[in-house]
């Protein structure tokens, strides 16, 4: 009988010790440890294209301490201030303790996170420390950065569109541009008033080559034809916002009247119909204030897919047939969308 009691006592003692050991392990595993301390090279940046390739922004932090040896991995998180890191840019870095950005790369990141070019905005930055799913992530202090990004504007080779709608003044005329520098030009021009006649000029005065009418065929408000350096005036049949093209390799030109809208499951009409935008002649942009949902959208002309633009690269720069523009949950709600189609630099903002 005494032996039975001894055995039972030993079992209970063993269970107690095992239980204590388990509790000790759980306590260690739930220990939050010491967080990394994050610092930035500066906390205020006015970014410019002049330093695009310079290493401008740098972050560094010390190692986390979990109270035991572990293979720690770090992720840098960058988000627009006030979003509580809901949809941050995450950079997985392994065991690295620093990260540097060129001006151009950090400028693109700031714009993707919702900062408006040429306006002061704030970004929040922190480091997430991770070892396994069994241990809670540790976060560093949050560093607030004041950042003024810049709009990337490229001056492509261009032709100036001078006509009676703007006083026949090449110096102040809108441009069409050759994004591939191959003699093929295009651009969007609002032609309203007068006879709607114009010429293409190779420089912002009348001292270069002027391209005028040689032949044309009109279909409704659209025109296709040829031009020559000794021709008369080009023309469009009615007022409107035109996609103008010119090819100095084969001397052809065209004019396609456009109106613009947005389409996608982030919009009220889904992918079945456009939500129409309104042209602002003063600022030469298309705008709409509308309610967005989490989802995606694209810009397209004339309610058809022949001319549509998306954002490949998520950099607020538009490309024909580009990727869908993703609207995350934190951008849902009433927003003003602006489409800017100036001189080969096709851009948009969502505010």
Automatic annotation (TrEMBL):
Residues 24-128 form the SusE outer membrane protein domain. InterPro entries: SusE. CDD domains: CBM_SusE-F_like, CBM_SusE-F_like_u1. It comes from the Bacteria. It holds the Pfam family SusE. This is SusE outer membrane protein domain-containing protein. It comes from Arcicella rosea. The lineage of its organism: Bacteria, Pseudomonadati, Bacteroidota, Cytophagia, Cytophagales.
């Amino acid at each position: 009988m005494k032996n039975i009691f001894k055995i039972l006592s030993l079992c209970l003692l063993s269970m107690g010790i095992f239980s204590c050991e388990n509790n000790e392990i759980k306590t260690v595993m739930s220990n939050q440890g010491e967080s990394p301390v994050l610092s930035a090279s500066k906390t205020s940046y006015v970014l410019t294209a002049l330093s695009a390739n310079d290493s401008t922004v740098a972050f560094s932090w010390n190692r986390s301490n979990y109270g035991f040896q572990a293979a720690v991995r770090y992720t840098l998180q960058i988000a627009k201030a006030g979003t509580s890191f809901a949809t941050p840019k995450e950079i997985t870095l392994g065991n690295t303790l620093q990260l540097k950005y060129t001006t151009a790369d950090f400028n693109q990141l700031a714009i993707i996170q919702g900062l408006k070019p040429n306006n002061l905005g704030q970004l929040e930055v922190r480091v997430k420390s991770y070892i396994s799913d069994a241990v809670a992530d540790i976060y560093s202090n949050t560093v607030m950065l004041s950042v003024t990004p810049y709009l990337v504007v490229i001056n492509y080779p261009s032709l100036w569109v001078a006509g009676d709608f703007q006083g026949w003044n090449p110096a102040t005329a809108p441009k069409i541009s050759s994004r591939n520098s191959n003699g093929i030009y295009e651009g969007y021009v609002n032609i309203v008033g007068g006879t709607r006649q114009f010429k293409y000029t190779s420089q912002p005065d009348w001292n270069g080559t002027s391209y005028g009418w040689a032949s044309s065929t009109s279909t409704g408000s659209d025109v296709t034809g040829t031009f020559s350096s000794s021709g008369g005036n080009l023309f469009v049949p009615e007022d409107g916002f035109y996609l103008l093209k010119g090819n100095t390799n084969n001397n052809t030109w065209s004019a396609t009247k456009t109106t613009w809208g947005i389409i996608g499951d982030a919009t009220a009409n889904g992918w079945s119909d456009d939500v129409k935008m309104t042209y602002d002649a003063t600022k030469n942009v298309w705008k709409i204030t509308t309610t967005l949902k989490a989802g995606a959208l694209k810009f397209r002309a004339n309610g058809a897919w022949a001319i549509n633009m998306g954002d490949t690269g998520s950099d607020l720069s538009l490309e024909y047939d580009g990727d869908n523009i993703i609207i995350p949950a934190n951008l849902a709600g009433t927003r003003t969308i602006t489409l800017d189609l100036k001189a080969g630099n096709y851009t948009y903002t969502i505010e």
